[in-house]
Amino acid sequence: MSVGLNLLQNNSDIEKGLLLELANQINKRAYSIRSRVQLYSQALVEDRLSNCPEVIALLDENSDLHKQFGAPSENVKQVMILFSKSVVCSVNPLTVVSRGISTKPLFTIKSIFVSELESSPLASVLTNKGKELHWLNWLLVCGDSIVIEGFHYGLPNSYERKHFSREGGLMYKGNQWFVPPQYSGDDTNNFITRSLQGIEDDIGKTIEGLMN
User: Fold this and answer.
1) What pTM value is reported for the model?
2) What phi and psi values does residue 162 have, to the nearest 5 degrees?
3) Are strands 148-154 and 170-177 parallel, antiparallel or unpaired?
4) DSSP character string of 104-142
5) What is the pLDDT of residues 151-193, one digit of tens each?
6) Residue pair 187/201 in contact by the 8 Å Cβ criterion
7) Residue 3: per-residue pLDDT
8) C-alpha angle 77/82/85, rounded to 5°?
9) Taking a C-beta distance cutoff of 8 angstroms, is the pair 113, 82 a contact?
10) Beta-carbon neighbour count of residue 169 at 10 Å?
11) E-only strand ranges, 4-91
């Protein structure tokens, strides 16, 4: 009986040793590709955001969204870069537990919160009258609700364009103004969440290729 127990114990030790070696090899490989996964993730996020309808419209000087928001194109681009560069990748090293190797995700990928993005000076624009317009907040959380009560948007005449306009439009008294429905968003469904839908699959495939 004692011999049998020793054999079982030896087999258990061998199995544990093999699992430890496997976990160590996987962890070593994960750490070696972490920076590449992070750079790929950042580039993918920036590409998706830069090519979404809302950002394209904000950068198009002839679009209604650009004229209504008046956000400088460089600000829009820098906000997209700021968000994408905030994406960080960390490794959660595998460990050997009683039932084998832990099954937690090997990589964790995070970015700054949207609230942090909204607090950036780039996320608002100052009118000639000194009023601060929070264009990013309007896009991300206001949904279809009224943003400005008692005013509506209109294109200025030549005199107004010369003396008062920001980058194309003015607010006139009467009615209300809200974000155009095709671009509006709220806490759970906005241009960032829509742009990044399914991105984990693309990142997962890249990780799989790099791990092999």
Assistant:
1) 0.81
2) -75, -35
3) antiparallel
4) S-SEEEE---HHHHHTSGGG-EE-TTS-EE-HHHHHHH-
5) 555 556 565 555 555 445 555 555 667 788 899 999 999 999 9
6) no
7) 37
8) 120
9) no
10) 19
11) 88-91
